[in-house]
Specification:
alpha/beta
Length: about 240
């Protein structure tokens, strides 16, 4: 079990393997995504009850648009249903809902539900639940660079003022701390364009378990492994 003082403040998750989970059972891929929502619910409630400060879930990447149109449509429908259905649970658990990514590229009806969740949970003081939607790490950095360049062009910022601290202020995640722990399900050893800037010193934990099977006990495994890690940030431990 974990020592409480070594719980990660911010957990980010690449929820992978919904398709493989479905294929193994000769089911349609979308059934994998539907089951995946159950894991989202369980892991969110578990993190909130453990007083994790932030949970960031990679729910839809910029690259995911290249999937068959029907899968993208069903994912958007699932997302909308999730946003509506989970609203009372989010509020009941004192969770503050937020998003990162190019939200204006999502269907209008999905954007509306996102806005409602953000607005209604605005004053909550518990865990922050952040969904990465239409998100790409490189896009995030490019978007930040563009906004920064504009400020320089408009004379609001000088070149000398640009350092890592300043740059961070232009990212989607400017108000957030960097993830302490990044969990990836379904075994792939890559970061898939997720939070590229923010995971510089994040501890990685990969499990072969597919996302729809990922439950509390797997989260516990990740947390006890994290508790044993020695974080050095490039320095030395005495
Ligand atoms: C990866 O599985 C998962 C996704 C592309 C999206 C994650 C979406 C969900 C968990 C459901 C919707 C989420 C919310 C928050 C409502 P994959 O399809 O890439 O699996 P595969 O690699 O096995 O094909």
């Amino acid at each position: 079990m974990n020592e409480n003082n070594k719980l990660p403040g911010h957990i980010a998750i690449i929820m992978d393997g919904n398709g493989r989970w479905a294929r193994k059972r000769s089911l349609n891929r979308i059934r994998g995504h539907i089951e995946g929502v159950k894991s989202v619910r369980e892991i969110t409630e578990e993190c909130a009850s453990k007083h994790i400060k932030q949970l960031t879930l990679y729910a839809f990447s910029r690259e995911n648009w290249s999937r068959p149109r029907i899968e993208v449509e069903l994912l958007m429908r699932l997302l909308k249903r999730y946003l509506i259905k989970e609203r009372p649970t989010i509020l009941k658990n004192n969770i503050r809902f937020t998003v990162i990514g190019r939200i204006d590229g999502l269907p209008k009806d999905v954007q509306r539900e996102i806005e409602i969740n953000i607005e209604e949970s605005r004053h909550n003081t518990g865990m922050v639940l952040c969904l990465a939607l239409n998100y790409g790490g490189r896009t995030e950095i490019v978007d930040a660079a563009k906004r920064l360049a504009k400020e320089v062009k408009d004379g609001k910022l000088s070149l000398e003022e640009i350092d890592e601290e300043t740059f961070k202020n232009y990212l989607y995640t400017s108000e957030m701390t960097d993830p302490d722990l990044l969990i990836r399900t379904a075994g792939e050893m890559r970061v898939s364009n997720f939070l590229l800037w923010e995971i510089s010193y994040t501890e990685l934990w990969v499990t072969p378990v597919c996302w729809p099977d990922f439950r509390k006990k797997h989260l516990e495994e990740a947390l006890s492994d994290y508790a044993k890690r020695e974080r050095r940030y490039g320095g030395l431990i005495e």
